[in-house]
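We modelled the chain as a single entity of 326 amino acids. Its sequence is:
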Amino acid sequence: MTQDQLEISSPFHAGELQAQDRMGVREKIGRVAGRRVRNHMPDQHREFYAALPFVLLGTVDTLGRPWASIVAGHPGFMSTLNPRSLEIAANPLFGDPLAGNLKPGADIGLLGLQPETRRRNRLSGRVREAGPTGISIEVTQAFGNCPQYIQSRTVDLRAEIDTPHTERPISYADKFDDDVRTLIERSDTLFIATAYRDQADAAVQGADVSHRGGKPGFVRVEDDRTFVLPDFSGNLHFNTVGNILLNPRTGFLFVDFDSGDLVYMTGQAEIIWDGKDVEAFEGAERLIRFRAEAVIRVEDSLPLRFRFDEYSPMLERTGSWHFPSE
């Protein structure tokens, strides 16, 4: 397969291809991408989404800032009329920036994750409709993800799942307070939203939301607005990294799985490919450094609780931050 053929048939945009080139995997992933990335949901994905009690969403606000969000409902709250359409019968949680981003035609990324089995699938598309009864999505890309770095947890639903608009204690800031910093530093899971679009109808462009997992402490807070996290070996698509290369605006969601507190943040990210900081974390192929511009913390927000089962066995291949000179 020639370089030109790869570009014509590829489901990836220029940033993703740039990252694949840098890592020397572009031709390798190009040979299988057509089978991995579809323009519709296969039946097993449709059944998977219908069984979940929550889903992660990535959207972009009117200022062009990505946000990562979570919506929840009784299993069955997501349904598919056909392989190109996903219906979400749920509303944003109180305080979630998602509420202002659901305009018809808006880009949206979706991550379905089942912590008990470590199974996950992703899709991207456009908002067809949004209103009091939920969200309708037109699917443009769909693909499965491997279970790497997902911590196993059992999910319990709470009665509040039926009242997502109930007001909760909420705080707004442009930096991390002590509570936010503590949550970041002890997290073993986070969600990251990115987006890129420069062509109105390009199916390979849009919004994305992805999972990252590691041992507690894998996210290193550098100051009251900045943290850095290792990026491990993944599916070689480089959706998140590719978006950041072309558009550094990035959103993060941190979840307190015990209390239900949610911390949303948006700002600017950069990819660090090499150097002593990358070498300081065993297993890291590169780093993502993020600087926050807006931080929202909503207490007792998520109407779910997660009982920890075990860490991903993949984490045995990773270490922790180690700076010999410090």
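As a brief sanity check on the tokenised model: The domain at 3-314 is CATH 2.30.110.10 (Pnp Oxidase; Chain A). The longest helix spans residues 26-36.
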